[in-house]
Amino acid sequence: MPNLVVENPCDNPPVWPAAPVPVKNPLAAMELATGKKKDRFGCTRNSGTKFHAGLDIKAVKGTECFAVADAKVEEVGFGTDVGKYVSISYNVDGQTIGVAYCHLNEALVKKGDPVVAGQVIGKTGITGNPDPNEPHLHIEYQTQIWVAYASAVDRSKVAMNPNALVPVGVAGV
Ligand SMILES: [Zn+2]
Predict the structure, then answer these.
(1) Domain map of the chain by residue range?
(2) Were both Cys, which of 25, 79, 93, 98 would link to 142 (CB 3.0–4.6 Å)?
(3) Which residues have a beta carbon within 5 Å of ligand 1, which is an ion?
């Protein structure tokens, strides 16, 4: 395993590209999670010094998660922080988009499955590192097939910003 040296992206934050507008929202109710941590994407934690690679959307355990576009299931896995996850990929104007649904309780698809926009691909949970009192879907977009923390890739370099999925002014902002 190569050693992964990750510079803190919040020392000199890049402008991350915006995630594409979904064909179907990932959850039926799109409300920002209200956590002790800040829950939007970006340098939103520890007074702006710590990067959060995804967007946290409030969801009680067992909430259905929908594919945001016609896509392919790339991986169903588990990570210490992200918990159980499903990652999918699709293409927008020649750009690969990877999306991961994290902290799931249940995955309802398997690697290699084709999925259509709106298909239920899993159910939310509190696996990984969330506070059990603040259940949410952590959704992450990347400019490639999604990779987790444990790989030799700095996620901040391939991140896309999904903040617009939950507009400003919605509860929790
Ligand atoms: Zn999160």
Answers:
(1) 9-165
(2) 98
(3) 54, 56, 138
CA of 139 to the centre of ligand 1 (A): 7
| Cβ–Cβ under 8 Å, residues 41 and 15 | no
What are the pLDDT digits (tens) for 77-117? 999 899 999 999 999 999 999 999 999 999 999 999 999 99
Spatial contact of 115 and 88, defined as CB atoms under 8 Å apart: yes
Output the CA 156–ligand 1 centroid distance in Å: 14
Distances (CA, A) of 75 to 49, 84, 153: 30, 10, 16
Ligand 1 centroid, distance to 71 Cα (angstroms): 22
Taking the centre of ligand 1 as the mean of its atom positions, its distance from the CA of residue 87, in whole angstroms, is: 15
What pLDDT does residue 170 have?
61
165/163 Cα distance (integer angstroms): 5
In 3D, which of 51, 67, 151 has the Cα closest to residue 101?
Answer: 67
Domain 9-165 is in which class? mainly beta
117 in Cβ contact with 70 (< 8 Å): yes
Taking the model in full, what pTM does it have? 0.92
Q: What spacing in Å lies between the alpha carbon of 72 and ligand 1's midpoint?
A: 23
> First and final CA of the chain: distance in angstroms?
39
Q: What is the dihedral of CA 25, 82, 9, 57, to 10 degrees?
A: 30
